[in-house]
Amino acid sequence: MRWEPLKEGLQQLILILRKSQSPDTGTQMAVQMTLEEFNRYPDFNHYLIYVLTKLKTEDESTRSMSGLILKKNVLEHYNRLQPDIIEYIKHECLQAVGDSSPLIRATVGILITTLASNGGLHNWPQLLPSLCDMLDSQNYDVCEGAFSALQNICEDSAGILDFMALSIMIPKFLQHFKHSSPKIRSHAIACINPFIIIRSQALILNIDSFIHNLFLLSGDEDPKMQQKVCYAFVKLLEVHMDRLVPHMSQILEYMLLRTQDSDEAVALAATEFWLSLADRGICKDVLAPILWQLLPVLVCAGRYSEVDSIFKGNVEEDDMVPDREEDIRPRFHKSRAHTIKSTQEAGAGAAGEDDDDDFDDGLDDDSSLSEWNLRKCSAAALDVLANVFREDCLPVVLPILKETLFHQEWVIKESGVLALGAIAEGCMQGMIQHLPELIPYLISCLSDKKALVRSITCWTLSRYANWVVNQPHDQYLKPLMEELLKRILDSNKRVQEAACSAFATLEEEACTELVPYLEYILKTLVFAFSKYQHKNLLILYDAVGTLADSVGHHLNKPQYIDILMPPLIDKWNLLKDDDKDLFPLLECLSSIATALQSGFLPYCDPVYRRCISLIEQTINQEMLCKQNQTYDHPDKERMIVALDLLSGLAEGLDRHIETLVANSNIMHLLYQCMQDVLPEVRQSSFALLGDLTKACFPHVHPFMAEFFPILGQNLNPDFISVCNNATWAIGEICMKLGEETKQYIRLVLSDLLIIINRPNTSKKLLENADSDEKSSAFRGMCHVIEVNPAGVVADFIFFCDAIASWVNPPQDLHQMTQKLV
After folding, report:
1. What are the residues facing 349 on neighbouring strands?
2. Given CB 3.0 to 4.6 Å as the disulfide criterion, which of 55, 103, 599, 690 pairs with 556?
3. What is the rounded distance in angstroms from the CA atom of residue 775 to the CA atom of residue 817?
4. What is the pTM of this model?
């Protein structure tokens, strides 16, 4: 298997590899073109592996670059590589596992993993035995190189490694927990950790030995090792808690110590343990004795680090600084869903609101896409533990709050405000007696000279918004609203963002209580449109949309429309169809259209036509993509938000949308969207179908024969939001069809009854059975039975069960069901 390069070819490659490390863009482009030329030569990959593994006279960075280019070739061209070349590369990799250079060993390990994952471990049967044998080598480089490759394989392919291989590998890994080298010990535990969460049988057979060895490593001073030990305990708690219970006091002591570790990565890994433990039934019993130690540690861990307090704490006025695109995190539209609402809202709203997201949104305290960090993890741990222990937390937490909230050092004060917000949900009942004093103090903190104190105060106040709106308005709500609106116009972008999010929460809690202040609110939000940079502008759209959802038709007054609509329409006209910023604006307009009702009529025609155009563009692009795979797949989010805005128009304009529908091909587009492979598209399609049924049924009616089979096919609770909207749409259609429903009954009735009576049916779906909208589905069903009683005989017992499930049925529905029974 010996191969030797030509001297001239080798020199050419070395020159290119050296140039490839240049930071100059022009040089990089030239190198890329040359490499593409080289790839046409069959021996090119031979040269690359030769430089990586054999050319030890060359510097490490050049050799490593050769290996990384080879890895890219394997990834992109594996199926086109000749078998003899693949075998040669494999052979040379195994020979080079123990290279004296750590960089080359790491590169070889990456290349081995790439070969194994692309070609399959079964096509390289000697790989794992060879690497396992190398673990016993007395040569450190060989042992470490083998472990480096094995760690990559275990992390990438844990689920496909067979029991026989693992029954040899795992005991061997455990033996190296006692190795003299910290790097080897770290590799050994990293190789085992991926098998915890998948409940590997080979690991279960060695679980007691694993736990025993973890305790041996718990005294290790190496931070990377401690991080891996903490991770192992967290995962064991999730899947093998019974094995940890006998050692729990020792584990708690260890985790408490590591939560205070000076290495933030270690402290974060340890803090994850408390989050995981809070979800376990044993949490209260095992943590109660150490709660007095744990809670102060978590509050302290919520402080900004010294580095962060310098770099973030000194940024005050930055509202004129343009945002970097990388600071704007991706937004994911929530498709329209019909769920339980108050009568005035009766219609569609965002589904799947995630409390965890709401909790995290308030802690967006940096510009790196809000990555998970020790501060956030500590606050989340306080939150979940407060929900476990409730008021039992307060004897420990209140003295801490008293000390921190009023502290002169802003970092400590800020951590106290954070802790106060974190315990809000779990300790609310116990905190009520303290809120008359704390809320005014927090409102005053909105004017703190430190931007980070102002921003976290916005979040904490939002956590107590429910209490605020149920108190005398002049005393709490009005001062809070006024100060939050000032912070919306703050000179610090982080404060603007926090204030917008907090105000949106206040809007949701206060609803129509905000009506007396609408003009002041609207003027502030509209002024912010001219002030905000890119990132916060997207959040501002959410705040405006939430306001419309909260106050509903009260927004439909000429003076409010004149304030709100011009800046939104200006933005609408500026944005192109393929601009991502159009999506949050469409979402915002959907809420506004629903709220304004007939007040949106002056704006409805161009908005409606653009939505139709967006849907058509997406459908056409997908058709092109199916015909020619060189075309890019369409971004269906724009179709989803367009469907949702059309729903908002239908709900808001009601019969006034009839002319727009009559002069468009919306029904044909809807027919296609209802059959889309993406559940979110179908979900929004059925919401629109229901809203159009209510608003202009004569235009929906001709399509019943096409629509009903599709509705029946989507009564699948595995796609809960799709099923929910399809159920609601069926109810609305049946209400309109009356006698005519009987010809479609066989397509939907049995599935509807199964869903309603299914023991594990989602709460959200059952809301459609015990709410304004579910009552529509029930009324529709009652009409079905009235016009075709024979069609339901076989399933009538299930219908009776469904009736019995109602707690407080509407009076008319109660009479209908009584009559049927």
Report:
1. 337
2. 599
3. 11
4. 0.80
